[in-house]
Design a protein that fits this description.
The protein is an alpha+beta fold. The protein has six helices and eight strands, in the order H-E-E-E-E-H-E-H-E-H-E-E-H-H. Helices cover 35% and strands 15% of the residues. Helix 2 crosses helix 4 and helix 3 packs across helix 5. Bound molecules: 1,3-dihydroxyacetonephosphate.
């Protein structure tokens, strides 16, 4: 599939912009802190760097090939490296949402993962949501840490930074991003009373099997 001739490029780009606006309206991001990518042909469509979402036009969305080709009038998000690396490493992933949600970022500042406090942790594929170690934004080092934290998972926190959530579709990634922020809020609500009791790994594994057919899961 070529980078420029794909008929759906502008349609997908419009969906990405709508998701960016929704990300800020729903409170899981603010300003231009986040970025979104969607798999497209042999690469990804990704938001440009530091452009306000309400000014973003479909033609501003940048295409990046897995071979390093870039096609766009603007520079891609400064976080293009982990977006591209996640899509390369995880063929099942169709969309990646990076944001700085308040509760997730508060936990990430404390370098704390989200443990199995609630069965909905299972929607990210495992018994916890890991927190990747800190590395400067946009670096290959950050991408490596993120990929390790995403092993067997579709979401992770980034220490002193924010969150990354992946999905097979953009809708699924957006739904999951809100669920992860909800879990983070719930965990933050518990912490003043002490570390909460946890569900077992076996119970989360059971829930992962049970919710396989639940909406949003395909
Ligand atoms: P961009 O505006 O370059 O996408 O960067 C925002 C960001 O989240 C950096 O982590």
């Amino acid at each position: 599939m070529s980078n420029t001739s794909h008929p759906d490029r502008l349609t997908v780009a419009a969906e990405i912009i709508a998701a960016c606006l929704e990300m800020n309206n729903s409170g899981i991001n603010q300003g231009t802190s986040g970025n979104i990518s969607v798999r497209h042909g042999d690469g990804i469509l990704i938001t440009p760097t530091s452009l306000a979402y309400d000014r973003m036009q479909p033609q501003d969305i940048v295409w990046m090939g897995f071979d390093g080709t870039v096609d766009g009038a603007l520079a891609p998000s400064s976080e293009w490296r982990f977006h591209l690396d996640i899509m390369r490493a995880k063929p099942e992933v169709g969309a990646v949402v990076h944001a700085h949600p308040h509760a997730c970022t508060t936990l990430a500042i404390m370098e704390k993962p989200i443990p199995p406090i609630h069965y909905m942790v299972a929607v990210c594929g495992g018994h916890d949501i890991r927190c990747a170690p800190y590395a400067t934004y946009g670096t290959e080092e950050l991408s490596k840490y993120a990929l390790a934290a995403l092993e067997g998972r579709s979401a992770c926190l980034l220490a002193h930074h924010g969150s990354i959530v992946a999905g097979t579709t953009l809708d699924q990634a957006m739904w999951r991003a809100v669920e992860v922020e909800t879990l983070a809020k719930q965990y933050l609500g518990c912490l003043p009373m002490g570390e909460p009791p946890l569900l077992s790994e076996a119970e989360i594994a059971h829930v992962i099997r049970k919710i396989a057919g639940y909406g949003h899961q395909d």
